[in-house]
């Protein structure tokens, strides 16, 4: 399990290391000691490999003072000071990042734009996504950050042990069952249906579930992570199991009271789960990591 990672994993790779990515390549000359992470979950991989970042993006939902439960637990295990929280509401906060004097900026799970990358690279070597924005798996995120930190072997072990934990959480009755993961809110009968590019769907697939035919037809681009289906088309996303995240407190009760929701196949059969637990949702979605997944699955 991820929480068994040594508190301080020493760097074993030789520097400099060069990482190729979607915007070019980045060379890190020496072992990073003052790391800034931007974007969700990137800080988790750094923490899991034994380093406390000096600056991180604050959590979006389900946090306590900017920290997720799994993130805070690991940081305290490492005895690290609280990082500076860097709001990205208006894009990368360049001046705040400069003030932290980072030697490396890590954001393999992000939507970094080329012009933003250029500005950040003037501050410190910056590592964005390898191929497509917002599409990096937690495994590739961990391996990329492991290489940047000079801890490739530890990152590979971390991925392997976390994958083993996910496999151990699977149940025989999941195998081959169709599943749909959606989001909705009070006052709307539309579902936002998550695609396989979304981490929460990838997790369900890893547990043995499959998507029903037609779900991926809701989007026109394979990089889109959510498609919309209206009430009159619910039958196109009928599934053995329906999982639904409601954004705001009270949304679940409002949604479950809608007759059209009650008549939806998996709901009518009692095979559905709705949740307002934002921490749990983030642990299995954009916040998925080798730290969050064991916490969420347990």
List the helices and strands and how they pair.
Layout: E1 17-21, E2 24-28, E3 35-37, H1 42-48, E4 55-56, H2 69-77, E5 84-85, H3 94-99, E6 104-106, H4 114-121, E7 126-127, H5 138-149, H6 152-169, E8 179-184, E9 191-194, H7 199-206, E10 226-229, E11 241-246, H8 251-256, H9 259-263, H10 265-268, E12 272-275, H11 278-283, H12 292-297
Parallel strand pairs: 3-6, 4-5, 6-7, 8-11, 11-12
Antiparallel strand pairs: 1-2, 8-9, 9-10
Helix pairs in contact: 1-2, 5-6
What keyword list fits this structure?
alpha/beta, 2 domains, 3-stranded parallel β-sheet, 298 residues, 5-stranded mixed β-sheet, 15% strand, single chain, disordered N terminus, 32% helix, Rossmann fold
